[in-house]
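Q: My collaborator sent me two sequences in one message, no labels, and asked for predicted structures for both. Can we handle them in order? The first one she listed is below.
A: Yes, handling them in the order given. First sequence, followed by its structure tokens:
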Amino acid sequence: MFSSVLIANRGEIAVRIAKTLHARGLRAVAVYTDPDADAPHVAAADVAVRVPDYLDGAAIVEAGRSVGAQAVHPGYGFLAENAAFARDVERAGLTWIGPPPAAIEAMGDKIRAKATVGPAGVPLVPGSDGSGLDDAQVAAAAREIGFPVLLKPSAGGGGKGMHVVTRDADLDDAIAAARREARGSFGDDTLLVERYVTDPRHVEIQVLADAHGTVVHLGERECSLQRRHQKVVEEAPSAVLDGRQRHAMGQAAVEAAKACGYVGAGTVEFVTNADASEFFFLEMNTRLQVEHPVTEEVVRIRGRRLDLVAEQLRIAAGEPLDYDQGDIRIEGHAVEVRLYAEDPARGFLPTGGTVLDLVWPERARVDAGVAVGTEVGSRYDPMLAKIITSGPTRAAALDRLDAALAATTVLGVRTNLAWLRTLIADDDVRAGRLDTGLIGRLPAPVEDLPDDVLAAAALAGLLDLADRSGGDAPFDRIGGWRLGADPAPARWRLVPAAGASGDPVDVAVAGPPTGATVTVGTGSSAGVPRPVSARRDGAELVLVLDGTTRRFRVVTSGGADGVRWLGREGGVWALREQERLRAARTAAGGADGPLTAPMPGTVTAVEVAEGDHVTAGQRLVVVEAMKMEHVVSAPTDGVVKDLAAKAGAAVALDAPLVTVVPDPGE
């Protein structure tokens, strides 16, 4: 067994691999780029080496050699399924902790993968089986299969370039779009066309194969809860498979692994119909999957728990698997959710910022790649962590997951945390009625701003003022001193911040924090005064409003913006105090201020110049992050001024880009 392993990755998977290395007494070597110099995966390693980029294979191999690493674990993403990199690792005399490069190549191209596993009896989706089809041939194959059909790039995954075509009239445009997207994402516009399975479920099988001919499967994972072909929730086992179906799908996965000479940990993905009465091979992922923890939580081998990374290490070291299929049992149920830096209320746009406060649940497994102080940007995948729970039944695992999400707090960065709680509470999700289109059919998330959150923000401000004012002198009292009268109420005008939208709301608090009244609302919509009190309990704010007690995590960002972040029960809100003069200017009909970046990213195009006259809806600036483009358009007819955006420049969330001054008379 090697004693030192370089982890060719970052984030939560690098931290997770380091834990297993340390548990086995091995040295963990990290690599990092300049933005990640202080990242958690660097702190988790014994030694870390700077590299220019996580895709620079030559630099990563040299980093390993320079510090005496004997093996390389690629994790997932980046170079994990790059056969050329695997060969470079082996040529450098290091052990590649992954499948043979030939197996990576065979499964990396969808057309070649189907040609490899088909003769082994693995069920294939009816569709084209040749490469290099021109547009006419793709169209002919689609018509022969019958609509609906799925167009998909041969060279890549992740849902990029996939198009479902339901009628002949849309076919030509869909082929052109799929080729264009495939070429842009993978540099290869080769297309496959397959029968589209309606209401499909996505079920995958984890396999392990050693170098001595033993191949086993470790049951299935249900991954049907997806958004834009990206997985959001995974569970093991599937809620729909029975023992017979599990055996059939497991055997098909084993045969697929044998057909390509697989060695190591891999995942064979299948698409099934609603009741899993038929299933078809999709692809094989020749690496560790993001969702591997749910398999670890339910698989028992002769009574012992499974660690897939440890199994990868043993197999790469040449050790045989010391068990066979009959030794493997599935016990209980596990569910995992992916915590993303994204804003559900804004179409799931990527977000960013500095993690100011972080609380993970105590009764759950958390694989995280962030810590307090971590800068979340747009350079890498927006997944911050995975939260996993298990239980004796599916219902118990989901209940524990809901409790875990309620106990989680991430402040400083907008995430999908609250939306995840809503998702797993959905009736269809709870009943196991899953398919890959379910999330897309759910109502669009909406932002809310409950009264208790507004009251908590005001009371937190009141406590801060009390801390600063200190003494009992009349002019130090919050709200001011008035002759012969009680102090005036402390007033705040609060507005959603950090990318959230909404109108300003006035909040007035009369009396000390330990026993006051609060009035929430603006003008004629102001409510009646309500009893309220607040106190600090360590890092939490305990608020009692109308006799109901709630606990908040509260933190205020530094800098001029002064955004106050509040979190409770999985919900997160960001508020700032609006200057009353600014609010008056806006209400009076003046300029609404600059248009700002809708997400952290890179300005890819600036299509106007200062002084240009523009019309409402005209494109002004394009911002890109995580291969997602967002166009900033003119809100009204007017003149461009204060153009801060520059093509190629990185921008933060809410960074000013450009101002459009309305034309006189508009």
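Q: And the one she listed second?
A: Here it is, processed independently of the first:
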Amino acid sequence: MRLLLISLQFLTIIPLPFNTRCEKEDLWRSTACFPVAGLVIGGLLVGAQWLIAPWISRALCDALLITLLTLITGALHLDGLADVCDGLAARGSRERFLAVMKDSQVGAIGAVGLVLALLLKWQALQAVPAECKWQALLLFPALARFGQVLTMTGARRARQDGLGAAFAQGGGALPLFAAFFTVAAAGYYLLDVRGIAALTAVCILTAAGRTFFQRKLGGLTGDTIGCISELNEILVLVVFSAIL
């Protein structure tokens, strides 16, 4: 339970009524609970859908759900996506890429990336059939957060400071196995083989993104992990809209 609360503290801005003790080694161990935290986020989206869907149009409802997702997560991973877009646009050396990502200001390319990401999520969610929508809302945040665990496990670090480095400095594959079992069981229970198909797509995209950034930067940062997570959210919603 403590590890789940730690994961919620890092992945969301949900206020907790008490402080959770967190040792250095707990950061990596808590990644086993990342998919469960994703299910909590998805559950909040399902609850919001149940409350507002009868009163407004489908398009507006889906836009509000994407807005709620952004608020719950504090736009943490969207910030990483914007920083990576700016870094790619810099077209420089590894040091230049890392320096641009560390800059707190969002450039023009980063802003375009944010707009496109939110637009794609909104449109993909609209394309999910209504009879399967609650399952998709519950599952896609969990699948994306499993992608974060897969991204970090055994990865090199591009820099030694930052939150991403703090999580990635752990060892062992046990949290990855626990996270995989959670999303595989949830995916099959909610959407049978279609949930497993979405999990497979997440694994492929995550492996490709991780390989790219490790070759480009010599390792991963918190921004690159967040970028891959955002791309996985978009991918899962697109896959659901296609196969459900």
